[in-house]
Amino acid sequence: MALLGHPDGDYPPDPHTPPGTASPAARAHLLNDRTTRTYQRVVTEGVERVAHRFASVTHPATGASVAEVAAEFADVDLDRPLHDSRRALEELERLYLRDAVYFHHPRYLAHLNCPIVIPAVLGEAVLSAVNSSLDTWDQSTGATLIERQLVEWTARRIGLGPNPDGVFTSGGTQSNLQALLLARDEACAGVRRHTPSLPRTSEILPRLRVLTSECAHFSVAKSAALLGLGYDAVVPVPTDADKRMLPEGLAAELERCHRDGLVPMAVVATAGTTDFGSIDPLEEVADLCRRFGAWLHVDAAYGCGLLVSRRRHLLDGAERADSVTVDFHKSFFQPVSSSAVLVGDRATLRHATYHADYLNPEDTADRVPNQVDKSIQTTRRFDALKLWLTLRVMGAGAVGELFDAVVDRADEAWTMIEDDPRFEIVTRPQLSTLVFRYLPRADATPELCDRVNRRARQTLFESGLAVVAATTVAGRQYLKFTLLNPETSTHDITAVLELIAEHAALAESEELSRPRVS
Ligand SMILES: *Cc1c(COP(=O)(O)O)cnc(C)c1O
């Protein structure tokens, strides 16, 4: 008879365990009616450890190198379990918690990661314990209605119509992919309606184009590739000095498509570009989409926080979109992941529908709400619960206050950087990002300027005192603050700017004194 457990003695074979029964030791880990005390104890241990971490974190990062962190894994053998959650948590402290990057720290100013609100963390704990899957009603019941109500609520805030709908997704990347999938299939159907020869899909795809600003998120290009159009199907539209899509540029590209017999399958307008937070002129873009019969997708992954802010007007025009991406995990202070794709006409979601006999047979479609009919995922997390508890506990207004605070702060920071001769800033933010760079002495080459800024960011990260991001503008190296933490003060921003200036000045003097080798 085969031995139970691992040869190294994970669980010693139990001679009293009859076939078809797992050992009591293994069964003790299942969450069920008999283990609720263990569940409470173990999860509380984890919560206490994280709480302790949060209470003692003094810097957003430790700056530990890849080699340093990797070295901690040397004595971990996944085939030799610790049999004890406390010991596993102690080990995790070393492997992860100690050197993790903490987004709640006021000097974490790097990417679009927000500090999260406690009601959402509560939601996360509930949803993973109950573990509903949002594909079908018979796996989710009330969870499906909660998600549907949140989709409706969001669509109403945007003003989408006439028959809005949507579904939660894993993130903006997936939301954009699904929106463009719907746009592609609508475009193919449109071409067939107007072509008597009924061309095959493979004949239509090479003619489809996606128009979006040169500052759009890369997931637009990636989606085009995944949807069988290729990266080249994405036509970049120029932007103005504030990094907003130029309507004249869009009109010119749409006309060019028309002239060349190409089909503008979708225009993607960004409401909050990842680098600059710039919002494309939604009304003008919507006018052009109507004129040329193009699907309008608004990527509000970042800007969706405006829906609950006193700056709601900045999203005016989004209600005319065919589809909208919102990332609650960017500007609604939700834990990853929490995102949704919304559409103005629910009939378009049919392009994501597949009826599987075992799951959602067609004959049940009218009787039971099955969210899988609207999603490109099957098994799907009940992420909506986090936003639900957030709205039920603190309310949309409080979320908006938090977002407005970071946008206000970004404007203050813009003035500070604009007035500081050591730095140069690219645009005045509409949302909460700031792209700027340290300026070395006037006779410095552009390459030296790039190196100095890169090195300043690197040494700052290694110090762990603050974390900032980087990007390029017209091929040159810049630094970026993404403010999403309402606890970040102007004092924090001044302090981080001082650190950057110090590191950059040091790098500059080192670069200048280094012998030139060509
Ligand atoms: C972050 C972002 C995305 C991608 O969203 P993920 O949730 O990271 O997948 C798409 N568009 C914009 C404008 C973004 O800022």
UniProtKB/TrEMBL annotation:
Which GO CC terms are listed, alphabetically?
cytoplasm
Record-level Gene Ontology MF annotations: aromatic-L-amino-acid decarboxylase activity; pyridoxal phosphate binding
Q: Known SUPFAM superfamilies for this protein?
A: PLP-dependent transferases
PTM-bearing positions, type N6-(pyridoxal phosphate)lysine? K330
Give any Pfam family that matches. Answer: Pyridoxal_deC
Q: Would I find Nuclease among this entry's keywords?
A: no
Q: Which cofactor does it need?
A: pyridoxal 5'-phosphate
Could you mention a single GO BP entry for this protein? carboxylic acid metabolic process
Protein name, UniProt field: Pyridoxal-dependent decarboxylase
Can you name the source organism? Halostreptopolyspora alba
